[in-house]
Amino acid sequence: MADKFTPEQRRAVTETEGNMLVSASAGSGKTYVMIERLIGIVLDGKAKVSEILAVTFTEAAAAEMKQKLVSALRKRLIDGGDNSAVRAALDEVPSASISTIHKFCADLLRSYFYEIGLDPAFKIADETAACEIQNAAADKTFSELYDAGDEDFLYLVRIFRSGRSDAELKKVIKKTAEFALSEKNPEEFLEKCGSSPTEKEFEEIENELAAMLKERAAALLPSFENAREVLRAAGVKKPDEYFDEVAARLKEIVAAPDLVRISAVCSSGVRKAPSVPGDLEDEKKAFDDLKKKLGKLFEDGEALLDGGEESAKAAFLSTERTVKALSRLAILYKNKYDEMKADESLVDFSDLEHLAYKLLTTSENALASVRNKYKYAFCDEYQDVNAVQEAVLNLVAPRGLFMVGDVKQCIYAFRGCNPDIFASKFAAFEVCEKRFGSVIAVGKADDEIYDNVGKADAEYYDNVGKANDEFCDNVGKADAEYYDNVGKAIALAENFRSADGVLKAVNNVFSATMTEKSSRINYAKNPMKSGGLYPENTGYAAMHVIVGEKEKRESPTGVYDLVRDAETEDEPDSFYEGLLVGELIEKELGEPIFDIKLGDTRPAEPKDIVVLLRNSKGFATDVIKTLSRLNVPVSSAAKDPVVDYPEIKLLIDILRLIDFYADDSPLIAVMKSSVGGFDEEELAAIRAFAPSSRSRSLPVSSSLVAPENDEEKRKTPTFLECVEYYLKEGTDEKLREKIARFDEYFKKIRLLAEFCGAGEILVRIIKERSLDLEILTGRLGELRLERVNRFVAESEKGGVKLTVGEFLKKIENSGDEISVAEAGGSNSVTVMSMHSSKGLEFPVVIIAGLGRQFNASDERDVLLLSKTRGFAPYCYDEQAMTKSTTLKRELVKNETRRATAREELRLLYVAMTRAQSKLHLVTSAELPAERNETTASLARKFTDYFSPCDMPVVIHDKADIKTFGRAGETRNILVGEARESLKEKISESVSFRYPFEADTVLPVKRAVTSISEEMSETKPVVFGVDGDDVYEDNYDDFYDDFYDDTESAGDSLSGDASDGNKKGKITVGKGKANERGTAYHKFLENLDFNAKSADNELIRQLSQGVLLPEQAKLLDKNTLQKIVNSGVFARLDGYKIYREQPFVAGFSAKDVGYEKAEGEILVQGIIDLLAVKGDEAIILDYKATGKSREEMLGKYKTQLEIYKKAVEKVMKLKVKKTILFNVFTCETVEVE
Fold this sequence. Notes:
By secondary structure, the protein is α/β, with parallel strands linked by helices. Helices cover about 50% and strands about 15% of the residues.
């Protein structure tokens, strides 16, 4: 392709005069064509690079366009072209006008701000700032109308209110104003939406609804005739009477003169359908599906005029007050929003478009200057324009605009893009070129074109598809709008991306579904053709359908099963689809794929595979988690919002508590968390101790307690008042001290918040309360800690640290945008949304979630919006306090559903055309019994677009998929560098599948102490599958290790234990030894390192309840005093101390004594004392033993080495020293 053009490409590159619209199918080389056209214009001397405008819609696309232009020019130098011209072009590229359309508009406004009275120092508002101003504008608009007692406004408040709130009305108004922004004149559009409903409009709506019902009836006729033949052939008795009656009803609907007659036919119904024997399973299912469609048609047709035509007309006409009031309120809100932005010298992206349009239509100076500057203009991804952007481009380059795109890839309608602009223009250009090709080929616009191009003859309407008055009135004018419809249309259909097997499946699907009727696109007219880069008959596509009953969760048995643990009571589709996707990935890895760059096959790697999903949340995150559990290395572009996770909710509660201490909800949440350390019983005691109603005895702080209007509510004390009361009058001294410490801590934090940013405060609390260690050592610790870090990072905005209040406001307005993505390394499977995949390509594409229902929330909105019909509200009866639908609302609902089906079909096209060699489609939904353009236009899920005839269909049973899942589960462990691979995550899984036999006998989990004991014997450890180590609990071993009962100092420790070689008598059993060990460990765990007296320290611990009286009896006071005097803890001055720190870490099996194994093993332990200063750490481990120094080193060295490795790997700290502390002798032993 680099050395030649197809005929269509050559035309697009060389015919440089006049307007041209290129419809470029996926993989057809549109960017290549555009760059070659631009270079041709420059090197032919028609224009300099600085005299060409090229716009697109994302900064990444603009940067890529520049980079490809530079690469192409450099290639010209290498190939020996005109060096001077090429070098001159290269010198101009850095400053070339190649940008997003918004940047072009912004630059234009900064140059001519004075022409429209714009502040030259204007700033572009980000989404958060714009959202804040929108909310403020709505509040101010509503407040002014409340104060004025505006009747129409109060009417809207009454009919749209939810409870006693006007929030729903604010939401409606903001959405309505935003909906208008893609129009050239939003205010004019809103005024038009507020036009009074008329009887003429009602008649038009009736006719449109009748046409939709007729279309559905016509589509059912051949389906029922086919069903008749199938059932007759299957031996079903007497089917003809039923089918004759159905055919008669459907034909009546198709021939009906109006909606009234259609409604009457639908209400009459048909006789009972013949029974289909149960053994004819497929035939019965298909027939049942057909009957449902017929029943839905009758139901819809009858319901439209259920109360009669006059009643329906009255309901429609009664919406006049509602639409007028909504139109007015939306304009008032928009004007207030514009005013508030102007006060702050802010513009949003929509303003850039509208202000640029205003500038070019009101300032002849600016328009002339722009047209003189740019001789040619290019627009990439033209299918994504809206009406304003289209108008701006036509003004800038009325006769030299090159547009390239693919209307089949218009997937951003939710942003205001209008695919009809592309489709209508392409059709108009085709007509123009067919009639006047020789004239427009040289860029002329003579009288013949002027007189004829816009005429409404049959051929014109057949191709353009539009015949409204506005189009006919304006299309022939000799201005920018006239030139819109004069130009050349070229279709690029040769595909250089995909192999034949993929192209065949794509063409089968979209030739049947992407039609003028269903999508306003005739795909079959220009289906994709092979570009000839792949060997013939290569490539593969298949539909994978999951069948079978969902299994209920089984009770856990002897061995922990990760798959079973992951299941819910009724497994979601995402679970099975995730497992099947994992199975497909496993099968594809290593399989040959043809690499067009190499010109040969090579084995597939993880990075060659992409998994595409409809959304980046919900179903997507479920699939990602399943793949992660299968140990598939995943890099996910699907962002997972963090604000709904428990650890982030706690941080938000902390911020709320800092912001307003008297808020009960965050106060209770934080006290109950590890930050406060209060349990349910303590909180209940605090609440119960306070008087049941407020009195003088309750210390109410007016500065903290929010005023309440309801006097009855004011009688009940807040939880803060209960806390304050207990602090003053409570009877449990320990609980009072605990409350005092919590209160004092948050007073300090709230004071610091006056001077520090929210992020600094959170980091301080996380460190001081050891939340990071608590999170890290818990389930999925590293992933959870990454979420925390991602959340805290959002507390800065453009280098400015947000205050607590500012951060809370940001969370309220855009918390869902704070997200974290999976990163599995450079050679990993990519998981992303279909939208994100646009412009990319992968050798192997797997598309899952095809059976999920499309989002139909827009159809249920209280106010439906239409570009052609305006507002479609309910009919409200205030007196009866009821609301009912209208025919207009039903029409717009139907239009919305069809628009959604068109958008989702285009999105499916984008997803399927990402595949180069192999395409797998995965669904848990059954494929439809029939598929045609009518069913496609009413699709509710992706599978509605498919037929078993499109490609091979592979059936997968859920039981088989689950078997693969159990066999394929592998443990993920948090070790090594963060995010380096999926093995670096802490996982609850303890089910293994290793490729080597030695690995299959590894214990599931090991305690550090048992590993240390075994490895001290200097021989390799080999365990059988049924060995005792499969379910060791490190807590059982822990105190045995601390107190060596086989070499105990005896029941009394008052004797001389200073000689480490002296063995005490064994006077207690293991149980008593463990109790004594527990007591000494508890004392050390709570020891005040500044204590001088063991007696006083013992009393303190007893009084605070951290040491029990029965434990104190087991302690020898002389030994305790030696511990206090030892000085070992003085070494830790200046260090942050973490006591009793549990950890979970992964180690190579060889590192912990399994010499023949290649796998990894999960190790758990508890570090007695971890001291941290900066990035350094000291580990101190307590032992009560009579062993010598050498014996201690021999026995415990491995244990300390494991502790050291765990801290360094998990916490990323450098362990400076590891020390053993002998409780009996108070001797320290440093482990090298």
